[in-house]
Fold each of these.
Amino acid sequence: MITWDNFIWFVIPAAVCWLAGALVSLRTDSRSKAALWLTLCGTLVFSCFIAGLWISLQRPPLRTMGETRLWYSFFMGISGMLTYWRWGYRWILSFSTVVAVVFCVINLLKPEIHDQSLMPALQSVWFIPHVTVYMFSYSVLGCAFMLSCVGLFRHEESYLSMADELIYTGTAFLTVGMLTGAIWAKDAWGNYWSWDPKETWAAITWAGYLTYIHLRLWGKSRPRTLYLILIGSFLTLQMCWYGVNYLPAAQQSVHLYNRTATN
Amino acid sequence: MRRAETIFFTGYLAVAALLQVAVGNLPFRFFAYPVNLLVAALWLFALWMWYKDYREGRAIRFLLSPSMTVFTLVSFIAGCMVIGLFPQLSAEEAAAKTGLWGSLGCYDFMTSWIFVSILFLLLTHLALVTYRGAFRARKFRWRFVANHAGLWLALFAGFFGSADCQNLRIPVLKGEASSRAYSMDGKVVYLDYELELLSFDADYYENGMPRHYEAEVRAGKDTARLEVNHPYSYRWGEDIYLTGYERKSGQTAYCVLQIVRQPWKYVQLAGILLTLIGGVLLFVEGPVNKKKLQK
């Protein structure tokens, strides 16, 4: 049975593969097949842990913060690899590796609750598509965030066309995640949308990326403004994902699943 | 034009803020059926006539301009931030709040004049943009229509339908039929049918958390099986939910049911589904760039 106690034995080989892939890609001028294979290997090792945990928990590991971080690391590996495969940026694998490993380390140091129980509200067919689609979009938008930081720092416009590809993909998944969430919310609580803090921050994040898309179509904004919008939107995304848990305004939120239910 | 735009945007928000300070939150219950239907029909008809006759005019061009898109999106974000940062209270609690934030309606911002005005402008802009885009033959047209018409429908139904929404709670007991429900602000509302608990079943995890619970309920002449995530559709626009239960000495004392009346929910769902299609197309077709447009 695979449990959280075994996590480190999956993280070490996965991180070694990811790191090796990142180093190879940094040292090769053209797109390196070895780097792609190494990253893929790391992600496969990591996915074995997720699959094992899923089986031993007897439910999908998607409920606690620690479990969503698991998916984030996993999708970071995948979207970093896809970005590298598609555009061949040498440094992207290093970034995705650092982020994926940081999230693994957080999980090792602060595992939070990983118990087996799944409250009735989360027992729904929408649970898996809603959370995994969101986690995938977060990772893609994470890549776009890194790209914007580099673009802003280097004062270069050329990163925007690649950011566009990532933003369209990320926003598409964000849309699907949000709307599957709305349909689920109707079944669970009676409203498609109830302006709960988590929902509100999801809307802010979504509208932020929509602003970027529309400004790009308009074509009159300076690259600096566009990079700043992407950075700002990614910050509101953090607010939506876990920031609301610490927000005084959100203590009544229905979206806090880490509390132990009393009845 | 730039200056005129700035004046309009500032003026629009200032008037909304002044209204809010002067008269408090929008009395949105006034817009319950049939007023909402009438207002929506008049508004859409006026927009359509205006667009048809004056589409080259300055006002319509301004309402359709990219700066309007950016203004409505940015002010929508700002409005959402107020909702996301200020604790949102009940209408009475919010009305009792004094000070600058209280008088601007920040503690019950969803029905404040400021946020309603922002949404109204967003809906107006989105309606015009969608209408224009739908009749323009160009690449990405269907993606454009799915995304914009879908979002418009969902927002429109949420906006105009909110006054018709009713959210009631009713405790139901075994062998005791009841039609006495309570609204969220504690007022008694009598249903036109009776509810009665027929049976209840729950099982638990080792830590005492419920794993699963379900109730069998008589609703009028129907028998309904209720579970979390599985409401029962009683009639057009009205659903019954199982929200909680109370146990005393190992026996189930009563269940709490929630009655949700939302006659506009079908329009909302249509909008959501259309936007979902738009979202998928956003991924499949990718960004708009010059290379693709030349194909």
Amino acid sequence: MWPGRHLVLALALGLIAVPAHAATIQIVMENLVVAPAEISARVGDTIEWVNKDVFAHTATARNGDFDVNLPPKKTVTSVLNKAGTVEYYCRFHPNMKAVLKIEP
Amino acid sequence: MFLRLSTAVAALSLLSGAAFAQAAKPTDPQIAHIAYTAGVIDINAAKQAMTKASNKEVKAFAQDMVRDHEAVNKQALDLVKKLNVTPEDNDTSKALSKHATDKLAELNKLSGAAYDKAYVANEVAYHKAVNSALETQLIPSANNAELKSLLQTGLKIFQGHQQHAEMVAAKLK
């Protein structure tokens, strides 16, 4: 109970820095297709990777910026911490490709 | 249509010893059995590759095959249970299994780079044959909508496997 109350207090006092415009963006992998195929985001935003398939997928940046493992029928979140236009794909199903435009 | 079907069947006959060249339209319980058998065959080939392959990409490809085909086959088992269908053994399944057993024995005699090449080449040919059978025979023959849909998902993922195998094959040259 107490830790929760401390968190509320800390938030109220502005002790925890919450980025002003941090958003949560959903990217869905279903039937071996990534949707949307291209989307814009900002550094600090959270990506909610939703894998609706029974197959394991990954979201792997070609430039090495991120490599997220997505078990079957699971949702995984990751926070964007570097700007750039990143092409990513699934290591297991290289036909699954998409682009994430991350603005500073 | 007729021409395409017979061409596909002819191609399959060459590749998989007439395995898919069954003329009569298969029933749903037979289709389920064929699809499941085809998956098991690729899983067995991949398990052999996981112990025998020397190339890193070939090993990773084999792991992908086990992961995906097991996922599809689990779906298939769940579906036949739900539909209360008992998969029915048939000549196509038998021919596929026979051909696969021979192929495994043949591959087992190879090692090193020769094994890697032969395994991947067989994966390309095998996925081509299975995909063509799915497209021209199994999917059009399936009556149950859920079975049809599972076969379509299978086709999509196996087409990906075929391309992936072709990519790995090209790198081994």
Amino acid sequence: MLFSPDCRAVFGSLASARGTSYVLYAQRNLSFSNRPLFRMRTVLLLLSLAGLCLCAPAQAQDRPHVFRNATLYPIHDEPIEQGVLVVEDGTIQAVGPVGSVDVPANAVEHDAAGKEIMPGLVDTHSHIGEVGGGDGSAAMHPDARTIDAINVRHPSLHRARAGGITTVQLISGSGLLMSGQTTYLKLREGGTVSELSACEEKPVGDCGGMKMANGTNPQRASGAFPGTRARAAAMAREQFVAAQEYRRKKKQADDPSEAPDRNLRMEGLIDVLEGRRTVHFHTHRHDDILTAIRLSEEFGFDLVLHHVSEGWKVADEIAEADVPASIIVLDSPGGKHEADELVYRTGRVLEEAGVDVAYHTDDPITDSRLFLRSPAIGVRAGMPRDAALESVTLAGARMLGMEDEVGSLEEGKDADFIVLSGDPLSVYTKIEQTWVEGTPVFDRSDPEDREFATGGYRVYDGAAQHVHE
Amino acid sequence: MSMSRLRPRRLSILLAALLLWGGLPTASAQPQRAVRADTLYTMTGDPIEEGVVLIENDTIAAVGPAPEVDVPASAEVHEASVATPGLIDPRGTVGLSGIYNVPADQDQLDTSEPMQPALRALDAYNPREQLVSFVQQLGFTTVHTGHAPGALISGQTATFSTAGTTVEASLRDSITTVAFTLGPDAQARFESPGTRAKGVAMLRQALLDAQAAMDGGESEGDLGQAVLQDVLRGEVPALITAHRAHDIQTALRLQEEFGFDLILDGAAEAYLMTEEIAEANVPVILHPTMARPSGTTQNAAFTTAGVLHDAGVPVAIQTGWEPYVPKTRIALYEAAIAMAHGLPREAALASITREAAEILGLESVGTLAPGQRADLALFDGDPFEYTTHVCTVLSGGEVVSDECK
């Protein structure tokens, strides 16, 4: 919830990351934003909020918004032609066909005839914001936190907003067996990583999973790195066994002085063992996919498979293990041996086998602005349309444990949605607006926002790239 | 062993077939195949509704609206929602830059010297490379491929049909361009040049040396100089990769100084130089629309193809070279994104058919007209739509792919 029901709450909710007050957040924007139009917008909002506070302290809040006549894709339910969407206080108040929904009298009206509206996209694997994790000193970095590396002011975040992405997992690279703790963010406007945290109930540092990788990316010829697949798995097992031992000693110590000293690496692994962090596991080849599943079963950790290029070969095994798959689709196979059998039909095959399937961008591997191309290519290869739309919304939300807050247009969920000029899976369609928690964060009709959708001179200045080479 | 046993028999069947043809000359004149499309993009004029293409051997015999084209009863007829000329990848490295991305299959760039005009694409092209058949299944019958950007002169490019399992059988044009690169991309892999100015000085000296040798009548013996002389004589165009606006200016300046035929390649910031490019009458083989905004392409825009087209600049859209993934881009997809961002539909199709052929000087491909090579791509819907399939591909009158991809 972005908006609080009264003025005191607006100013008092600063402590809560997700409940960050729009007013103070706007002030931060005034100080730090280099984007004048956003500044103007926030100034106006600031003034209007201030005015509301002065006039009617008990009712201070943003006005509700109603979008009428659009085709709505609730995702959890059938599409609604000629639908009505009401959002208020950062949440969805009502969704339904025209005439079936109560609209507050003071709502800001949006005639969305001819438009299509779907939930904000959930990208389960992205490298925007210059995110990074561990370094080359070791193969496993359960202690490295991506929150200490994310630059939320980086233009790549605007690239994602322009692509309709409202929830994202920022994830460190695959060149390490365990490259660090990932971070789940909401792409609201903001100047600090805490302001963008996707978790209301816990600090942003706890709001994420753990990145692991197998196959060729984390293999190196020397030093602290595995040179073979078997060595990679052995190293991961060793660390988890050590963490089990550390946890046992900690629990068995009667006197705190007898307990082992704090060890950040062990603490990160215990988060995994105790289910506080899902492992997001980069894996391409069919046998590597099964290795990831084997590790998760041995140590009982929650697992989401990522990329899963040869998942089509082991779809039944993945379904049997009840493990979700966050997949990538590329225009052509290859680039390395283990991706030479990457095919367009992986999403369809996994979905048919009963696996929960999400697409991800792996930005900059595929461009956040064109995220909807991925499910569209899935449909090209036979994936049902509804499953394809779910794969970039609700399915991704489930993989981040956020299905109660985002991923569908349902009453009470965050008001994260995108307004499209047409069919979400058509090349002709443009994302016209992206809203996070009832606030627009991208508006294509605004020339400055539009630049982030099209690119141009110095738009992506300093856009560092994540390179797997 | 079994191959050699089979060979004589195959030969005799071939001979018998030839004899039969010789004995029945009317049979060979009979069109063996026709394509009927709800919308036929000939690229020589407006699309034809309910259009038919008649194919005789490897050549197009007739094109027109269905009522005006007689299809012999014996002809095999392929139906499609949309048919276009076989697609052309206007500039890639497919066939040289292989799917596995390991030293053994990466032949697009030799870094032993910064200027190597003697390197021929045909000595490196692998017609059995998996990515060649991959792009063929997606409608590409012709690829202009060869040495990648990354050196002042990385080598030559050539044009191949995606059909054929030997270089000789696939080759359409043995030297289509000589590939030059300006700016930091020409510096990264070499001790020198280390700056833009040094790179251009090196290039100018090489061209001046070739010019002097040509004027003095001495060119034999130096393979590289002979190729540069072809460029200086206007027989082979210079394909100059230049992304930043000031590098584009340098390319135009070099063209003015030496008078060669210039094709601008990449050209990420071409939208800043539209007037100058149009005035110089230089065509552009634009970077992939979805090129990542990084390094010299940092300022790339989805809208550039449309902007150039509006200014009257001939535009083709390339797949370029990818160091990682996707190991080859698909020019059809790149043209689709350009179309969605301002390039008119016909120009977007032309950018991977007619316009590409014209820029590269390829005469028998890129349009559907009598006498043209019978290369066609057949779609089950709008060719640019994400969810449309390429269902049949004809190359030289033969079906080379007939599965919806």
